[in-house]
Amino acid sequence: MARPRLSDGTRTRLLEAGAAAFLENGYHGTGIKQILDEVQVPKGSFYNYFASKEDLGVAVIRYYRDCTARSMAEAMENAPAPLVGLRTFFERQMAAFEEARFAGGCLLANLAGELDGSDACRDALAVAFRAWRDDVRDALAAAQRDGTVRADIDATELADVLVESWEGAVIRMKIDRSLEPLDRCLRHQLDGYFRP
């Protein structure tokens, strides 16, 4: 019997709905039915796209990673300087957090705190965090070459510092319902510690 033809559009809608639901309710607080109802896809069709909820989780993590990479590339592409592009990327995230009224935060960080029982999801999260860190590293390395970021510390180490402090600031943002922790993070890192 021939396998049914799959729609890339349906798969993308399932990924988008999954990401939104995981962000709002967490992985364990989200049921497949909730995602299917949102996308208006019958339950049997879900298994044409994903083998399990865990498989969906891995796919959502990869989808979010790809969206983050595209957002970073767009910010960097139109920037007059690497540090300006990096700041633009983070400021766009801040605008999205504010638009969402500080709910949700970073899907990767949220899932990392919840999915310690899934090796497949943990591996996907590790790859996604590394990819994001590497994009930040590349921007910082370019800024080191143009003299706007200190060069006495490796760009990978600086990227780790920035990503890790940003994620902590996102947690505070959610608690305080304020962008101030994120502003403080960028101000102290990009305008302070990272300067030559």
CATH top level label: Mainly Alpha
The tally of beta strands, per DSSP, is 0
- The CATH topology annotation reads as Tetracycline Repressor, domain 2
Which spans have pLDDT < 50 for at least 5 consecutive residues?
1-5
CATH architecture verdict: Orthogonal Bundle
Give the structural class. mainly alpha
Strand share of the residues? under 5%
Number of helical stretches of at least 4 residues: 9
Biggest beta sheet summary: none
Estimate the global geometry from the Cα principal axes: elongated
Radius of gyration: 18 Å
- CATH homologous superfamily title: Tetracycline Repressor, domain 2
Structural account:
The chain has 196 residues and is mainly alpha-helical. 74% of the residues lie in helices and 0% in strands. It has a single domain, classed as Tetracycline Repressor, domain 2, CATH 1.10.357. It contains nine helices and no strands. Helix 4 (53-77) runs parallel beside helix 7 (119-145). The radius of gyration is 18 Å and the shape is elongated. Mean pLDDT is 91; it is low at 1-5.
Write the layout of secondary structure elements.
Layout: H1 8-25, H2 32-39, H3 43-49, H4 53-77, H5 82-99, H6 107-112, H7 119-145, H8 155-176, H9 180-193
